[in-house]
Amino acid sequence: MVLGELGTRISNALRKLQNATIIDEEVLKECLGEVTKALLQSDVNVNYVKRLRDQVLLQVNVESDAAGTNKRKLIQRAVVGELQSMLESEKKPYQMKKGKINVVMFVGLQGSGKTTTCAKYAYNYLRKGWRVGLVCADTFRAGAFDQLKQNATRIKVPFYGSYTETDPVKIAQEGVEYFRSQNYDLIIVDTSGRHRQEAALFEEMEQVEAAINPDEVIFVMDSSIGQSCYDQALAFKKSVKVGSVIVTKLDGHAKGGGALSAVAATESPIIFIGTGEQFDDFEQFEAKSFIRRLLGLGDIDRLFSVVQEAIPKEKQPELMNKISQGKFSLRDMYEQFQTVLKMGSISQLMSMIPGMNSGLLEKGNEKEGIARIKRFMCMMDSMTDDELDGKSSMVPSRITRVARGSGTSVREVTLLLEEHKRFAKMVGKMGKMSLGKANDMQNFMRNPQQMMRKVQSAIDPKMMKQLGGTQNMMQMMKEMSKMDMSEMMSQLGRGKKKTKR
Ligand SMILES: Nc1nc2c(ncn2[C@@H]2O[C@H](COP(=O)(O)OP(=O)(O)OP(=O)(O)O)[C@@H](O)[C@H]2O)c(=O)[nH]1
Questions:
Q1: Residue-wise burial string across 350-370, b where 16 or more C-beta atoms lie within 10 A, e elsewhere
Q2: Which numeric CATH code is attached to 2-87?
Q3: Which of 223, 227, 310, 452 is the one with CA 20 to 30 A from 374?
Q4: What superfamily does domain 300-494 belong to in CATH?
């Protein structure tokens, strides 16, 4: 994505500090010059850029006696901190509550990506097991109901709307009532947009809001207008109770940085960003995590919470126990695949690993990988319990049966079994190292070359390519080796969130 370029430019400017023998005022100013240039070219308001520069200069005393390493760290920390506060809003967004009825109304101009975003938002919660319903109260644009209906059908979410009713208030009210009566967790109401901010649009939004009394109003905004987002966001906030914002199309516009910082300046929390036309081109937004990932610094805390969300708490000790014993059946592999699919976009996940570049995984590669996982799961659905648990060995006649039952081929089922063997071998090796022995693990992680050889022998070459190749894996291992692995692993095992960095 275009924002990735901004991230690369800023991190390159920071990296240059590593090459400088002495960190003096000149070096700092040169570094800040490059950072500010990159921000301005991303349409960030000149006043915010100036503030960032002044704040960093204020925080870093280059004349001090501190060693070069400390000064470098200080500068990096100050830049990251200032970028973070540029995107942060003091106001907290509405907290969705599973098991209760949450009514969320979407507003925005026509073409901002509102209808697509409603589906992305629905899909995000659907994947986490929520019961979601979509209501189309956009009676202004012909075809809006059809679009919502198509999206809803694709993600398998029930919808409510009408081809004949012209009163958006009536549809919104009836739709919300319908899903309320069925106790849905999340009811999403898509409203009309207009090409411009005009009185009729605001009037209609106010009426729908009064009729359905939503728990949250989400404003959807197209990032292509850059810092002009500020005025648009304020205008919507004045009319309805906008609680949070979703900024779309950050995949295609050079003004993304300007859009994000302008919205944050209106004190409206950004909760998600849209990064493409597909339903999973959608990222939860949290300023600190976003900046860290943008600069390739990773976000281990977030990685933990995503993994912990995806692996049910009660299953975590069991999984760690199995790994430490080096056991890994086909059923375990199936469960791991389920977890991977639940965790969402693999490239997003990868960007949470320090040293990994957010644009590393190509979309095509990721889609291919997911399709492969789904095909493998389909084959495993045709296996018996004993086969999944490794109590019956997969002899040729069984392989043929599974291939027939899943509509695949003997070659593909054989491939699945080979893949399982590789995984089982890797888990076996991890088990031997014993996760409980922190020192073993730390030594292992401190030797990236050795780690790399082991990983290479265990990973399918195709998958290695998808992970960005050996070079990138090496970089990742190096970054990870700097962290306290024993603490990381035991946290994962215990299912506790890391609080200390
Ligand atoms: N590249 C990219 N395109 C997007 C994104 N979000 C939405 N779009 C596209 O933007 C176009 C407009 O999106 P819609 O969802 O139809 O817009 P809308 O705001 O609902 O428009 P109205 O219903 O008329 O108010 C569609 O072609 C979407 O596929 C995004 O994050 N990235």
A1: bbbbbbbbbbbbeeebbeebb
A2: 1.20.120.140
A3: 452
A4: Signal recognition particle, SRP54 subunit, M-domain (1.10.260.30)
Q: What tokens were used for 347?
A: 């490239």
220 CA → ligand 1 middle, Å: 10
- Number of helical (H) and strand (E) elements in the chain, helices listed first: 24, 8
Helices in 407-468 by DSSP H: which ranges? 410-433, 438-446, 448-458, 461-466
pLDDT tens for 230-281 read: 888 888 888 888 999 999 998 876 788 888 888 888 888 999 999 888 888 8
User: Residue 496 is encoded by which pair of tokens?
Assistant: 């506790």
Give the binding-site residues of ligand 1, using a 6 Å CB cut-off: 108, 110-116, 138, 141, 144, 147, 193, 248-249, 251-252, 274-277, 281
Residues 32, 36, 42, CA angle at the centre, nearest 5°?
150
Which residue(s) pair with 160 in the sheet?
Answer: 135
Q: Which CATH architecture has domain 102-294?
A: 3-Layer(aba) Sandwich (3.40)
CA 14, 20, 23: angle at the middle one, nearest 5? 85
Which of 2, 110, 116 should be mutated for ligand 1, with most atoms under 8 A from CB?
A: 116
| Beta-ladder partners of 216 | 104
pLDDT value of position 491:
47
Residue nearest to atom 13 of ligand 1 (CA): 113
Q: Which two tokens stand for residue 34?
A: 């490059």
Q: In the structure encoding, which two tokens stand for residue 499, read together?
A: 């609080």
